[in-house]
């Protein structure tokens, strides 16, 4: 085999309500697409179906015995210009350093192969219902592996300063959303109490 010409064969396709990526390569960097609708970045609760091609259906046997799977898929909406990017601001944030794409999880990369751990909800024949898949509808699935915490999790892994900053920002946003929801719940409860009086 000529190592310069590798051939990948998709084993299936993603069916999802996510119609387009939220983070796109444009003008030499990453940018957020501000359109409405389900976005890949908000996919933690999104339920998607992975439809395995009939000739690979038996490869799913036993996957339902696991709670989670690692999905490798091709980010098919990344165009040639996006695949040519070498350096980006992580998540398109200009307050973060410009780094090489291999230091990020950006979909814009020479081979737009993305990986994500998802929760397995159900296997239905050649279909696998999962939660948390951030792939856009129509994304080719390259591989599925059971998620093994002892194999994939690395204790004491070091992260860059900017990645820790992203994680802290996400935690703060999550806590703010929980507090906002709790406030609405308390407000709704007091309104119900007033109505009963």
Total number of helical segments?
3
Radius of gyration: 20 Å
Give a short account of the largest sheet: 6 strands, antiparallel, barrel
Biggest sheet strand order reads: 1-4-9-8-5-10
Which CATH architecture of the largest domain would you pick? Answer: Beta Barrel
The helix/strand class is alpha+beta
- Determine the fraction of residues in helical runs and give it as a percent range: 10-25%
Mean pLDDT figure? 85
If you consult CATH, what is the topology of the largest domain?
Elongation Factor Tu (Ef-tu), domain 3
What is the CATH domain class of the largest domain?
A: Mainly Beta
Key phrases:
Elongation Factor Tu (Ef-tu), domain 3, two-stranded antiparallel ribbon, 197 residues, globular, 27% strand, 2 domains, alpha+beta, 6-stranded antiparallel β-barrel
Account of the protein in words:
With 197 residues, the protein is an alpha+beta fold. The protein has two domains: 12-153, Beta Barrel (Elongation Factor Tu (Ef-tu), domain 3); 155-197. The chain has three helices and ten strands. The strands form three sheets. The chain has a six-stranded antiparallel barrel with strand order 1-4-9-8-5-10. Strands 2-3 form a two-stranded antiparallel sheet. The longest helix has 36 residues, at 161-196. The protein starts with 11 loop residues before the first strand and ends with a helix. The model is unreliable at 36-40 (pLDDT under 50).
């Amino acid at each position: 085999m000529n190592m310069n010409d590798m051939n990948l064969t998709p084993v299936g396709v993603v069916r999802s309500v996510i119609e387009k990526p939220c983070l796109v390569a444009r003008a030499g960097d990453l940018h957020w697409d501000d359109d409405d609708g389900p976005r890949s970045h908000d996919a933690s609760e999104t339920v998607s179906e992975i439809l395995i091609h009939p000739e690979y259906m038996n490869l799913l046997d036993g996957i339902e015995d696991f709670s989670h799977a690692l999905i490798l898929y091709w980010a098919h909406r990344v165009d040639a210009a996006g695949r040519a990017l070498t350096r980006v601001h992580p998540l398109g944030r200009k307050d973060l350093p410009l780094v090489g794409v291999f230091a990020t999880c950006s979909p814009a990369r020479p081979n737009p192969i993305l990986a994500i751990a998802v929760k397995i909800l159900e296997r239905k024949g050649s279909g696998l219902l999962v939660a948390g898949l951030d792939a856009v509808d129509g994304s080719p699935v390259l591989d599925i592996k059971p998620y093994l915490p002892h194999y994939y999790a690395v204790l004491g892994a070091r992260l860059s300063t900017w990645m820790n900053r992203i994680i802290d920002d996400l935690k703060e946003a999550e806590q703010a959303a929980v507090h906002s929801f709790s406030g609405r719940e308390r407000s709704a409860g007091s309104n119900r109490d007033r109505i009963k009086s």
